[in-house]
Amino acid sequence: MEKTQYNGPEMTAKKVVVLLLTASAILVLFLTRTVKSEAEPEIETSWQQVERNHTYISPYDSLFRQYADSVCDWKMLAAIAYVESKFDTAAVSGSGARGLMQIMPATYSRMLARMGVRDTSARSIELDIRVAVRYLDELNSTFSFISDGERMNYILGSYNGGPSHIFDAMRIARKNGQNRYSWCSLTPVIMSLSDPAVYNDSVCRSGCFYGTETLQYVSRVNRKYNEYRRQELLFQAIEKLAENNRNEIHHNN
After folding, report:
1. 184-230: per-residue pLDDT in tens?
2. Who contacts 187 (Cβ-Cβ below 8 Å, separation ≥6)?
C-alpha cells in the first residue's frame, strides 16, 4: 500500500501540548456545567445572570460592559486597560498618566468638566472608565471622516500619542501624495516625525514625535482585543454546548 504523505502544518511538541491543554480546559468546563445542570437549580440574581453570559477578563468587566458604547465594545475597553496599566488602578506612568485607563491629568479634568462633574480632580475606577469612554467618543468624532474599518487605529493612536501628531502625519502624507486615510500607509510617516527634515516642515505643527511607542501600542491593543474576542466566542460556544446538554437531560427526564 502506498504511504500517504502529510502536507499540513508541522505539529511540534509545543503545539501538541497547547492543543491538549486547550481541549482539556474545554472538557473540564463542559463537564462542570453538565454536573451543575443535574444538581438542584440555583436562584440567580440579574447580575449573576449577566456575568455568566460573558467570559471573564478582569475584575472590572461589569463596569466595562456598563459604559461600553457603539464606539468601543467592552472587550476593546478591557484591551486598552490591559495595555495601559495591566489592570493596575494605582498605575502612574513616567509622563504622569494615571489610573486604570492611563489618561493624562489635564485631559482627565477636561473630560470631567464636559461630563458635568464639578470636582474635576475626582478619582475612582468608575470615573476612569467613564472618562476614557468620553475621550474615545470625542476622538471618534474627530476622525469621523476615516472609514469604519480604519478609524479605530486613528483613535488608538491619538489616545496614546495625541491627535495633533496624528494630524501632522496626515498632513505630511498628503503633501507627499501618500494615502493619509490608511493606517498602514500612515505608519512610515508617523515613524518619520522624529526626523528634523520632516518635523521642521511647515505643515508639521506639533514638532518632533517619536512614534515607535504609539505604533506598537495600536498593534498591542488590537492584538489583545482580538484575543478577547476569540476568548468570548469560545466561551459562548462552550455555554451553548452546555445549554444544549442541559436541555437534553431535562427532555430525557
Report:
1. 999 999 999 999 999 999 999 999 999 999 999 999 999 999 999 99
2. 215
Domain final residue, candidates 112, 142, 172: 142
CB 171 within 8 A of CB 189: no
Query: Which positions ≥6 away from 55 have C-beta within 8 Å?
Result: 228, 231, 232, 234, 235, 236
- In this structure, what DSSP letter does residue 103 have? B
Q: Under the phi-then-psi rule, with left for phi > 0, alpha for psi from -120 to 50, and beta for the rest, what region is 208?
A: beta
- Show which residues are catalytic: 84
- Stretches in the chain below the pLDDT threshold 50: 1-9, 18, 28-50
Q: Where are the alpha helices (DSSP H) in 117-162?
A: 125-142, 148-161
Question: How far is it, in rounded angstroms, from Cα 100 to Cα 83?
Answer: 10
The distance from CA 231 to its chain's CA centroid, rounded to whole angstroms, is 13
The domain in which residue 80 lies consists of 58-142
Domain for residue 42, yes or no? Answer: no
